[in-house]
Design goal:
Length: 764
């Protein structure tokens, strides 16, 4: 006796199962929904926060690059003036108006000065109210520093200020230039005239022959403009941005804090860790404790720390140029700026989930009772049918699926007896169907052979007997089957291997189709296509194998004809394709090249500029454009004729091509005597170098131009522009900037290049 028969089985009602399963599913679904909602919102907030911080820091970096690019260019321009002999360090009087004009070139310029080893000094200054002044110190002033206001022509007017005992050689910027012996940046220092932080791009000046120091140049920026820029940034609700040096000195901040202090009547710079702003101070202290040494920060870092129990999100971005400027841009935002909404949403979600859970449990109990009552009734009647009472009915007054189930149960009960009665009739019809199937097989125009599981033959139809030339079905297959029926490998005199015959392979469980065998007769060869398939019983064991085969003589003949045709057609198509490809390549070359100059035409220029603009928007890399035309070219044509003018255009195009060194740079004829160079991944200084190279190449050509007002040879007017493309700026702004610079170069006397920056949509 088994143990299971003595131990009663524990019964669980269907109603209980339905209630428990429904409630569990609801609890899991509601809980998981609430958790995923909170988790997804938390992740979205973190991604949004860091993305916002990254955009702010990148914008600060871009502004700094633009901010510090102009002083270097101004210094180089002044050095060129000295080298050409326009200005002399032994006579500083002519410098006044020159410097007065230079200080107006860009809004960030505050002070441009020059001092020499004789203690003499000249400078142009931009006051806080935007007015301009002249600053002098020499033997005539007793080497005191006089600051004058100026009129609109750059002449001195009223005296503004006097500083006693001024020696430019003792100023930090002068000493920095002397020690560096090259173009560099001074340390950040406090102005002696105004309470502002300053930084200067400085350059020493040496006597060309003796290489002896004779003076130094200084282009000074007021860093309070950085404070103004940072304060205008939107950094969350209460976030901050500030700039520090690698030793932690505070340079600029988005708060109202002044980045210096007065101590003992002396103004001094402050460290960010000593800032009066609580968040700035805490962030600086965290950076020092985390990195130990701020010099170790080489790439952007995303960090977080806790201040008064609140999480602070921080991004540190190194900022450096090629002139020893090495600062850190720090953006810090309290996480609560982004999480207030998620906390409110989470509370609402929890309340709604609990209400949904309570309502769902009540509904689940009521529905389970409504479902199980008629099912229990059906269960009782089914047990009676199992005992042999076939004609049973269930009365359920419902029109839903349960009601349909009751109706189906009643019909099943009625039909069950009828099914038993019909079973005998079905067996008789099955025997009749088998007879009909045999007739169908005999009528087929293909040979059919059936093997039993043990390899004996069960059936041959008439077509099979005809193709194999036999009268009766052999009792057992012979190992010499291929020899007996002259079955060969197609196209050879080799008998087909018995173990490879389709019938034998089907008995191994393989379904196969082959057309590589043929039957040899004395007067002909019959190619066959054969398909063999195993037939399995209910236990997945092989019961039979069916082999069907047909004469494919006509098909082989057609295939031979088609094969010859396709080979011929394929050869003709290949030849024609080669001709079309060559023609297409020639056409594409003609479409993209200017017929006269053999450089890219205007159509290729527009396509390539648009293509590189979109790529560099994604990669956030610089794009520069150089646009130039030939000075007084109409006069050149009038003087030398249009044929000479065409030859001149070709020479200019060749010079442009030689000046471009990188494969990615594109030389193009923009229209008429106007040419352009597209310079992807090239910053402004690189574009300036290309412009100079173009000028030098054209100068080497020495193309005579007796009608020119600026030279006896052909010269160029050039416009240069550069930017980092973004979605707020269009490539039309880039072309417009280059064109405006070109126009201004022509307006200022031709044979020169000028630099313009593209105007942003906010500046237009």
């Amino acid at each position: 006796m088994s143990l299971s028969s003595d131990r009663p089985k524990r019964k669980i009602s269907l109603r209980t199962v339905l209630i428990i399963s429904s409630v569990l599913q609801i609890i899991v679904a509601v809980g998981l929904t609430g958790y995923l909602s909170w988790r997804g919102a938390q992740q979205a907030v973190n991604e949004l926060a860091y993305e916002s911080i990254e955009k702010v820091s990148n914008r600060v970096e871009q502004n700094l690059h633009e901010y510090f690019s102009i002083p270097e260019l101004v210094n180089k321009s002044t050095l060129n003036a000295i080298g050409l002999g326009y200005l002399n360090l032994q006579n500083l009087q002519p410098w006044e108006k020159y410097l007065w004009r230079q200080v107006q070139l860009a809004p960030q310029l505050n002070f441009i000065g020059i001092g020499n080893e004789n203690k003499e000094f000249r400078a142009a200054k931009k006051f806080v109210d935007g007015s301009l002044g002249i600053v002098i110190s020499d033997r005539a002033t007793g080497f005191n520093l006089y600051t004058y206001n100026s009129d609109r022509n750059g002449n001195r007017t009223t005296l503004n200020n006097i500083l006693k005992n001024f020696d430019p050689r003792q100023r930090p910027w002068y000493q920095k230039a002397v020690s560096a012996k090259k173009l560099t940046w001074s340390e950040v220092y406090l102005s002696i005239l105004e309470p502002k932080l300053l930084i200067s791009a400085v350059h020493p000046i040496y006597e060309p022959t003796t290489k002896q120091l004779i003076g130094a140049l200084s282009v000074t920026l007021r860093l309070d403009r950085l404070d103004r820029f940072l304060s205008e940034l939107k950094i969350g609700k209460s976030g901050q941005a500030f700039i520090i040096t690698r030793d932690g000195t505070l340079i600029a901040t988005s708060t109202a804090e002044i980045p210096y202090r007065t101590k003992n009547n002396q103004k001094e710079l402050i460290a960010a860790s000593d800032s009066s702003d609580r968040l700035t101070q805490a962030t600086a202290k965290y950076l020092f404790s985390h990195f130990q040494n701020l010099q170790n920060i080489y790439s952007p870092k995303q960090l977080e720390f806790t201040l008064e129990g609140k999480r602070q999100l921080v991004r540190v971005l190194p900022f450096a140029d090629n002139r020893e400027l090495n600062w850190l841009v720090v953006v810090v935002v309290p996480e609560t700026d982004f999480t207030q909404q998620i906390h409110a949403t989470t509370r609402t979600t929890i309340i709604l989930c609990l209400l949904a859970l309570l309502v769902s449990i009540i509904v689940a109990i009521l529905i389970s009772r409504w479902i199980t009552r008629p099912i229990l009734q059906l269960n009782a009647e089914t047990k009676k049918i199992a005992k042999g009472y076939l004609a049973r009915t269930v009365i359920v007054n419902r029109t839903d699926e349960v009601g349909e189930l009751a109706d189906s149960f009643n019909r099943m009960s009625e039909q069950l007896q009828a099914s038993f009665d019909a079973l005998q009739i079905l067996n008789e019809e099955l025997l009749y169907s088998e007879s009909r199937l045999t007739q169908f097989l005999e009528a087929l125009p293909i040979g059919v052979v059936v093997y039993n599981y043990d390899g004996t033959f069960a059936y041959y139809n008439q077509t099979a007997k005809h193709l194999l030339a036999i009268e009766h079905i052999p009792e057992n297959p012979s190992e010499q089957f291929a020899l007996n029926y002259q079955i060969y490998v197609a196209g050879t005199n080799q008998l087909y291997p018995t173990e490879q015959l389709p019938g034998y392979r089907a008995l191994q469980g393989e379904s196969i189709t082959v057309d590589d065998l043929e039957i040899h007769r004395e007067d002909k060869v019959i190619p066959l296509e054969v398909r063999a398939t195993p037939i399995f019983d209910t236990q997945e064991q092989i019961a039979y194998a069916i082999v069907a085969f047909a004469d494919i003589t006509k098909r082989k003949q057609v295939q031979k004809i088609l094969s010859d045709y396709y080979n011929t057609l394929e050869s003709q198509v290949a030849q024609r394709t080669t001709e079309l490809e060559q023609a297409n390549q020639q056409l594409q070359r003609l479409v993209n090249l200017d017929g006269l100059t053999q450089v890219a035409n205007r159509r290729r220029f527009d396509e390539y500029l648009n293509q590189e603009w979109k790529r560099l928007v994604r990669e956030q890399q610089p794009l520069s454009l150089v646009l130039f035309d030939i000075d007084f070219f109409k006069r050149y044509n009038d003087c030398y004729g249009h044929q000479a003018g065409d030859d001149c255009l070709r020479k200019i195009a060749s010079a442009l091509t030689r000046a471009l060194k990188r494969p990615a740079d594109l030389a193009a004829r923009y229209g008429g005597e106007e040419f352009a160079a597209i310079l992807p991944n090239t910053e402004l200084f690189g574009a300036v170098a290309v412009a100079r190279a173009i000028q030098e190449e054209v100068k080497q050509l020495k193309i005579p131009h007796e009608r020119s007002e600026v030279s006896e040879y052909v010269t160029l007017s050039i416009g240069v522009t550069s930017t980092i493309p973004d979605r707020d700026l269009s490539l039309e702004n880039l072309v417009a900037a280059a064109d405006e610079a070109l126009y201004e170069a022509k307006k200022r006397g031709r044979d020169r290049f000028l630099i313009y920056y593209p105007a942003s949509p906010h500046q237009q």
